[in-house]
């Protein structure tokens, strides 16, 4: 089996309300990549969030006293309004240390700053949030691409996650459609005939809950 990763250039800067499926489809056609049955189209979370309007302008945020106290503990003077957005996106705080906040999001993901991103957004002072329902986002995008290209394919929505208290970033799947994200080896045997009881491989890697 051959696995090829083929970039698709040409997407414009995505704005809220843009038709992401049409723009992705146009970029695929312009790149002359071609789609075959069982291909997987991978899109980053940020363009999905932007298109769906999952953004917050700091000028519209009033920080809570707790967010202001958090800011006082940070190095470099983080904007308390940004902390407030993180708190609003969090289901619970897992740990705080020197201005770093690890939370569990409403989706059940444990990550830094609830996935709220201050970089490469719509512009200065605009934060990007995680999609409300990444599986639904992947499903809608997949259906549009299937209809357009008339092939059975999968869509994965990805994001870059840090691992709590470890160096380095990894790419994880937030949502997917058109494929089973897990490969279950339980009940099979290893090289020496020992039955496997816990081996479930993440084909589309998802963050731990």
Across the major sheet, the strand order is: 1-7-8
Q: Which residues sit in consecutive blocks of at least 5 with pLDDT less than 50?
A: none
Q: What is the string of helix and strand elements? A: HEHEHHEEEEHEEEE
> What percent of the residues sit in helical stretches (DSSP H or I)?
25-40%
How many strand segments?
10
User: Averaging pLDDT over every residue, what do you get?
Assistant: 88
Describe the largest sheet: 3 strands, mixed
| Tally of helical segments | 5
Radius of gyration: 20 Å
Measured between the Cα atoms of the first and last residue, the distance is 31 Å
Q: Shape from CA axes? A: flat
Strand content: 15-25%
Structural class based on helices, strands and sheet pairing: alpha+beta
Overview features:
three-stranded antiparallel beta sheet; 5 helices; flat; 209 residues
Secondary-structure topology with pairs:
Blueprint: H1 20-31, E1 40-44, H2 45-52, E2 55-57, H3 65-72, H4 80-89, E3 90-97, E4 100-105, E5 110-112, E6 126-128, H5 134-149, E7 154-162, E8 169-177, E9 182-184, E10 200-202
Parallel strand pairs: 1-7
Antiparallel strand pairs: 2-6, 3-4, 4-5, 7-8, 9-10
